[in-house]
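Work Package 3 (structural annotation) set out to generate three-dimensional models for the target panel prioritized at the project kickoff. During this period the team completed the workflow that converts sequence records into discrete structure tokens, so that structures can be stored uniformly alongside our sequence database. As a representative example, we reproduce one entry of 190 residues exactly as it appears in the project archive.
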Amino acid sequence: MRTLTPALRGDVITGIAVTLVGAVYYIATFWIQETKNIVTPRTFPAIVGIALIVLGLFLIGQAVYRSRKLAEVVPAGAASASSGASGVASGSGAADSGVEDEPAGVVLDAPEESKSKQVVLQFALFFIYLGILIPVGFLLSTAAFLMTMTSIYAPHRWIRNLIFSVLFSVIIYVAFVYGLAVYLPVGILG
């Protein structure tokens, strides 16, 4: 684990956090009252909890796999990187032949961005969404949540974000209420 770059370490930490949130979310579904219907009020939250657990574990596994691949490549590339750097410094033909300074096969990380703040913001928005879901209602709170989340990634495309957020919320609401007979909170619209 000591070969983890800061980016991969961040992926592992995020994966652990997502897995823990999914586990808590799934465990919380056991307190939802069961009905005699095939699709119960517990079904969708359980699916979300399991999906969060799987995605968190996948993120951890992917980071560990990339770390191992990086560990295999870096020792072999480290020696050629030092010789390539000395060749360029001494004025050998590497610079004249148009060959890059980077050795082949070495994976370089992008400059560190403040992704941890973005992840914390997304979790905070999710918990705010959970807090306002029942009093405000599914349609309004889901549309607002999706609009906010999509605006984080594409703030300049607010019309597309708004259309997506409203359509997705309405389609899910209609599918659950009229298709599956699972009633979602109506909140201030009801």
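The chain has a mean pLDDT of 77.
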